[in-house]
Design goal:
By secondary structure, this protein is an all-alpha fold. The chain has 20 helices and two strands. Among the domains are: 143 residues, no CATH class; 100 residues, no CATH class.
Length: 487
C-alpha cells in the first residue's frame, strides 16, 4: 500500500484546508491516513487481547492486525484535491455533465484505485490486495443505486451513509464504497463473509478502520485549528457553557424558536442534541450528552484552548497531551457488538465515548467548517475544479489532438470505454438511473467514458497539480515544463 504513487500523492491533498503558508502545522491526507492506521492497529490489538472479544470477532469473520492497518493506510487513496469540497464538485460534474449514474464518491474511488487504476498488481490492474483487505476498505459495502438487493437505502432504518441526501432526492445513497464497474470485485471480496455478516454490514476489520477514522478526525482536526489560531477559546467556551447553563430552557424551546435565535450561543449545540435523538435514538442519551459536553469543556476548552498556541515547547506538550489522552480514552471505549443496530458496525464506541466524539466533531463543524473565510476559499476551489474538468474534457473531444493527449488521460479513457462496453453488453440497466429511459447510443457511451476518465484523472492530482494544470490550460503561464504536472 505505502509503495503506491496514489499513497504518496496524499501528502499534497487537503485534509480540511490547504496547508500552504502553515508549514507543518496542518494535517494532510497522508498524515491523516498514517494516524488512522496507527489508531486502527491499536484498537485491533486491544480487542484481540481479550478472549471474549476475540471469540466474538472470530464468529464474525475475524480481525487481523495487518489487515486493519492496511485498510487505514488505504482508505483515502481515492480522495480528490481540496478535501471533501473536491468530492462534492466531482460528483456534481460526473452526474450532470457526463450522465454517470454513479457520480463520484471518495470511498468508491479508493476502491477503484486499489482494484483497477493503480498498476502494481501482478496483472497490471490495481494493487493485488487480499480479499480481506479489499473488504476492509468497504466502509459502505454497497453501490450508489443497485447492489446489494434490496438496496440498504430502502431499509426502515438505513445504515449510516446509505440514505439519500436531503438536497438531492433520487440520486441514491449519499455514501457508498463501490462503483458499478467494480461490483464484481466487491462481491468477490465479500464472498468469504457470506453467511457471517449481512450484505450491507461492514466486516469487523472495516468497522475497526471506520471507527479509527472517526477518532482521528475528531481529534487531529481540532489540533490543527488550535495551532493556526482559528479555534478560539471564547467562542467555543461560550457555546458549550451557555448550553450547559440553560439546558432545560433550550430543551423546552420549539425547533422554530431555535431557528429564530440561530446566533445565540447554545442553540447550535441544542440542535445537535435533537439531531442525535432523531437519527441515532438507539444510543442517544441526554445524561451521556451532558457528560460529554462537560468533558470537552474541561479537556479542550480549559486545558488546551485557554492558552493560545505560540509554538513553544509548553504549547506543543499541551497539544500532545490532548491528543494522547483523548486517543487513549476513545480506544479504551471500543467494544464488539455481535448484533448491532443498523446504524452501527460490529466494532463501536461505548455510549460515553460515542457522545464525546459527536461533541468534538460538532466543535470542528461549528467553529471551522462554517466559517465564511473557509467558504470563500472553497468557492474558489469549486470554480478551479469545474474549469479543469471542462478543459480536459474539451481536450479529449478534440480529435486533432488525439496523438498529444496526456498518456495517463488517454489510458484512463481507453479503460473507461472498455469497462462501459462490458457493462452495456452484460447489464445495460446499470448504466442509467432506475426507471430512466435513455438511449445508450455511441455518443452517450463516449460521453460517459470521457467523464469517467477525466474524473479519474483529476481525482489523482494533488492540490498544487490541479491548480498548475488549470493555469497551463488557461494560458496563464509561459513555463513549458512544470514539476507539478503529471501528464
Amino acid at each position: 500500500m505505502s509503495s503506491s504513487a496514489f499513497f504518496a500523492r496524499l501528502g499534497g491533498v487537503t485534509q480540511v484546508v490547504s496547508p500552504s503558508g502553515s508549514g507543518l502545522l496542518l494535517h494532510n491526507r497522508l498524515t491523516h491516513s498514517l494516524k488512522v492506521a496507527q489508531v486502527a492497529r491499536a484498537i485491533a490489538e486491544r480487542l484481540v487481547a481479550d478472549p471474549v472479544d476475540l471469540a466474538k470477532m472470530d464468529r464474525l469473520g475475524g480481525c487481523d492486525l495487518d489487515v486493519v492497518e492496511a485498510a487505514g493506510l488505504g482508505h483515502d487513496l481515492g480522495h480528490p484535491p481540496f478535501g471533501h469540497l473536491g468530492e462534492s464538485v466531482l460528483d456534481r460534474l460526473a452526474r450532470q455533465r457526463f450522465a454517470l449514474p454513479d457520480g463520484f464518491e471518495g470511498n468508491a474511488q479508493s476502491y477503484r484505485v486499489v482494484t483497477r487504476i493503480d498498476v502494481r498488481g501482478t496483472d497490471g490492474d490495481g494493487l493485488d490486495l487480499t480479499a480481506a483487505v479489499r473488504a476492509a476498505l468497504l466502509k459502505y459495502p454497497w453501490t450508489r443505486l443497485s447492489e446489494p438487493q434490496p438496496h440498504p437505502r430502502h431499509m426502515p432504518v438505513p445504515p449510516r451513509g446509505a440514505s439519500e441526501p436531503d438536497e438531492a432526492p433520487g440520486t441514491g445513497s449519499a455514501k457508498f464504497s463501490c462503483y458499478r464497474t467494480e461490483l464484481d470485485d466487491m462481491v468477490d471480496a465479500r464472498s468469504p463473509f457470506r453467511g457471517l455478516l449481512a450484505d450491507w454490514q461492514q466486516t469487523v476489520e472495516a468497522s475497526v478502520m471506520d471507527t479509527a477514522d472517526d477518532i482521528a478526525y475528531a481529534i487531529h482536526d481540532l489540533e490543527d485549528f488550535h495551532r493556526v489560531g482559528i479555534l478560539q477559546h471564547t467562542s467555543v467556551s461560550h457555546e458549550l457553557t451557555e448550553w450547559l447553563g440553560h439546558a432545560v430552557e433550550f430543551a423546552g424551546r420549539s425547533d422554530a424558536d431555535l431557528a429564530g435565535e440561530e446566533l445565540r450561543p447554545g442553540c447550535s449545540l441544542e440542535r445537535l442534541r435533537r439531531r442525535l435523538h432523531a437519527k441515532d435514538g438507539w444510543i442517544a442519551d441526554d445524561e451521556a450528552f451532558v457528560s460529554a459536553v462537560k468533558k470537552v469543556v474541561a479537556n479542550l476548552v480549559t486545558k488546551l484552548l485557554e492558552v493560545p498556541f505560540d509554538r513553544s515547547q509548553q504549547a506543543e506538550q499541551a497539544v500532545a497531551a490532548f491528543s494522547g489522552e483523548w486517543t487513549q480514552r476513545l480506544v479504551e471505549g471500543i467494544q464488539v457488538v455481535e448484533e448491532p443496530p443498523t446504524r452501527s458496525g460490529h466494532v463501536a464506541l461505548a455510549v460515553e465515548q460515542w457522545h464525546e466524539v459527536q461533541v468534538l466533531k460538532f466543535v470542528h463543524r461549528r467553529f471551522v467548517l462554517q466559517r465564511p473565510d473557509l467558504a470563500l476559499h472553497q468557492r474558489g476551489q469549486d470554480r478551479l475544479l469545474s474549469k479543469l474538468v471542462e478543459a480536459l474534457d474539451n481536450w479529449l473531444i478534440d480529435r486533432s489532438e488525439a496523438a498529444r493527449l496526456p498518456h495517463r488521460l488517454r489510458d484512463l479513457f481507453d479503460r473507461a470505454r472498455a469497462e462501459l462496453v462490458v457493462l452495456h453488453r452484460d447489464a445495460p440497466e446499470l448504466l442509467v438511473q432506475p426507471g430512466e429511459q435513455v438511449e445508450l447510443d455511441a455518443a452517450h457511451m463516449e460521453r460517459m467514458a470521457r467523464g469517467r476518465a477525466v474524473i479519474d484523472f483529476v481525482a489523482s492530482l494533488t492540490d498544487d497539480q490541479a491548480a498548475a494544470l488549470l493555469e497551463a490550460l488557461s494560458g496563464r503561464t509561459t513555463r513549458l515544463w512544470n514539476d507539478t504536472f503529471v501528464l
